[in-house]
Amino acid sequence: MLSRVLREDRRIPAGARFAITGALSRRTDLVERTLTPIGGSPEAPFVQMDPHLWFVRPYVAHDRSPGWNDPALIEGAAVTLAGLHGIAVRLQGVDLPGYDIAELLGRLSPYHWPVWTVLDRYDEFVTEMRKRSRPQADVDTVRRSLERLAKEATELRLGLVGLTHQDYRPDNILVRDGKVVAVIDWALAHRDHFLYDAVLAALHVAGHQPAEDRARATRRFVDAYLDAIDVEAEAAAVRWMFRYVVTRKIAVSGRPEKWRALEAVVGPLAGPGGA
Fold this sequence. Notes:
The protein has a three-stranded antiparallel beta sheet with strand order 1-3-2, with no helix packed on it. A two-stranded antiparallel sheet has the order 4-7. It has a two-stranded antiparallel sheet with strand order 5-6. It has a domain at 67-106 and 151-266: Aminoglycoside 3'-phosphotransferase, Chain: A, domain 2. With 275 residues, the chain is mainly α. Strand 5 (173-176) and strand 6 (179-183) form a beta hairpin. It has ten helices and seven strands. The longest helix is centred in the N-terminal third of the chain and has 20 residues, at 71-90.
């Protein structure tokens, strides 16, 4: 299949992205190795035609409209993400010959920063919102929320760090007969808190539910994820991450109204084992 990603100088560079998928494809069938198109090379398996990079990936047979209200599929997707994070732990992130992880993270634009950078430099993060002409009311709300979240984070353990997908949502999870068969679109992948990836994914799944079922589906995803990755997570850290994800997505998303609607989900969620 011919695919494309937007070329942005302040994202992880294209060569590193394909190194990530290549490393993962050697360790799991859920990530397909990128094929080299005509005009590309093994070192740069893509063709640049501004503003996009074009590449080829194998076709994976999948259901066009999987039932994302199915509890078994929600839990299966969570377990799949936990498995991918487990691979990342064993790899100590992902081996990227020729790339320095710290240098790669340092070149990211604020909208792609990992959690700890946003918290350390939230003034620059909200400045990016102003540059992108976001409504001043949103800028002020995000700044106040990030300031509060940064103070609270000093008392929390947010868990393991490693390679995260950053966009693990139903559109990027290919399903066949109720089972996850592939995870695509690793263009945003970089080092971050695994809990961020899990909570973001849970809220994406919640967006596919009727309003009355969103909190239940979100909790189901996060509980299944935490059980599968076999780590203890403080309920307070999980609650904190839900608030952080919604705040961040209101700032960066092209559809902030979607994330404002999901704020109603975050309130009653107490995290695993809490009430």
